[in-house]
Design a protein that fits this description.
By secondary structure, this protein is mainly alpha-helical. The protein has three helices and two strands, in the order αββαα. The chain has a two-stranded antiparallel ribbon with strand order 1-2.
Length: about 100
Amino acid sequence: MEKFELSAQEITAKIAELQELKRMREELDAEIESASNSIKFAMGDTESATFGPYKVTYKEVTTTRLDTAGIRSALPAEVLAPYMKTTVTRPLRIG
């Protein structure tokens, strides 16, 4: 990643912009959730319907996943060790 020289004032402005964008995302996520819930409520038990140009489906989907917490509690760490994968991240946190 290329490093850009920014003044403390420019970084402060970018942090403020980032915080505002995150706040706006939270508002949009809440509005998206509200609109989705309205559609789900209107659909009730109906699994699919057409509204104007939109075909909407709202039906149950069954998914099977590995219960890693259960495996960790049932098996010793040395048995799991060959299957463990370590990743390194570098998160940006602003307080």
